[in-house]
Design a protein that fits this description.
51 residues; mainly alpha; 1 helix; 78% helix; Biopolymer transporter ExbB; membrane; transmembrane helix; transmembrane
């Protein structure tokens, strides 16, 4: 770490942030998104103005 200095620390922080965001998106897509879609579809099917 001595030869890279602060640049390596910045790269480490950026990669941790990147992987945190990637994992968060996977959690959303696999667990939360289906629940939201189901909820919206239920609301859509309960509308009165449908033919």
């Amino acid at each position: 770490m001595e030869s890279g200095g602060t640049v390596l620390w910045l790269i480490l922080l950026a990669s941790i942030l990147m992987w945190t965001l990637i994992i968060e998106r996977y959690v959303f897509i696999w667990f939360l998104h289906p629940r939201e879609v189901r909820k919206m579809m239920d609301e859509w099917h309960q509308r009165d103005d449908l033919a």
